Amino acid sequence: xxxxxxxxxxxxxxxxxxxxxxxxxxxxxxxxxxxxxxxxxxxxxxxxxxxxxxxxxxxxxxxxxxxxxxxxxxxxxxxxxxxxxxxxxxxxxxxxxxxxxxxxxxxxxxxxxxxxxxxxxxxxxxxxxxxxxxxxxxxxxxxxxxxxxxxxxxxxxxxxxxxxxxxxxxxxxxxxxxxxxxxxxxxxxxxxxxxxxxxxxxxxxxxxxxxxxxxxxxxxxxxxxxxxxxxxxxxxxxxxxxxxxxxxxxxxxxxxxxxxxxxxxxxxxxxxxxxxxxxxxxxxxxxxxxxxxxxxxxxxxxxxxxxxxxxxxxxxxxxxxxxxxxxxxxxxxxxxxxxxxxxxxxxxxxxxxxxxxxxxxxxxxxxxxxxxxxxxxxxxxxxxxxxxxxxxxxxxxxxxxxxxxxxxxxxxxxxxxxxxxxxxxxxxxx
Length: 430
Known about the structure:
Elements: H1 3-8, H2 30-36, E1 49-53, H3 54-71, E2 74-75, H4 85-93, E3 99-101, H5 104-112, E4 117-123, H6 127-136, E5 143-148, H7 151-162, E6 170-175, H8 188-200, E7 204-210, H9 222-244, E8 254-258, H10 264-271, E9 281-285, H11 298-301, H12 303-306, H13 310-313, E10 321-332, E11 335-338, E12 353-359, E13 362-365, E14 371-375, E15 380-383, E16 395-399, E17 412-416, E18 422-427
Parallel strand pairs: 1-17, 2-9, 3-4, 4-5, 5-6, 6-7, 7-8, 8-9
Antiparallel strand pairs: 1-10, 10-11, 10-16, 11-15, 12-13, 12-16, 14-15, 17-18
Helix pairs in contact: 7-8, 9-10
């Protein structure tokens, strides 16, 4: 990555409008923040505020790198999770092959910070996006992969690329889908038609096959694991079928990519190994939410939680992200209103989970009976026993339930040590 671009983040002004930071603007830049090492509780931070725990981030990145090394797979963590170049740098420094993106705007952010390998986990058909890609391919040190899932999509993109000065073919992965899912070829006929269209195009090169299993389930039940494994075997069989027809260009490894954050261990198992005839395979996983983890359903479904021996017994991932909110009111018995809502915490995969409470300078775990009931834009409804002493002014720590819709709510996020002193601040680029 570009060290100068990363270093420049430290001098971007931290205005008083930065959500959660001191309202008096006492820290003008991240550089000043790092030098001061303020406490988020004692030095003017205003609720709601988010934090990322340094130790948890470091441990999660290390565990994922160890898993990939132990299983002989590459990792292109999904940038859309955090859109934070400082976190990208950590992932890449721990051996990530490159980054995955969902849009060309995300790709442009990554390129601005010097990322040299990108996997666009989507079909590429829009003329402005194709023009941007063509310009980037002039850099011989840059790798870009995208998806193809129909002959029509390939033909249309080839027509656009024909009018551009494309320095080399655009590498594509054939996407395999399933009924009711997202994009991706559903049949052998569709696979063959798409491969034939790529073969006829002077502007494309078929580099491998990809799929996404993440929407097939959100639990660790045997039937879900079986369904995920069955789909990933279809992805593998598609690659075998294409190889049998001589559809892959070049002599290098065929790239097989899958692996959302819940079932990446199954992807590593099902996709690995040479194809019939001996053509080598390189598996690329794309999971992203591992870096922050969560307090919701993924905390149980993550391979690091459900497979005890994973990564040499490294143990489960740690929750790195928290949102702290103030108690605003107790309008009726058993109901507390907090000042954090949908603008501050994810709700798309479940409501946040109360983790801790701070009264004055005393910190304690939140009682198990506390539960978030609902959320408005700026309010969270917390149910608890009538006799609980929680009162206006107390602070409640909320565990998030979906990192991918947590980061985009915060332009700046303090990084804290175990004593909640700020060591850095992460800038997001959504």
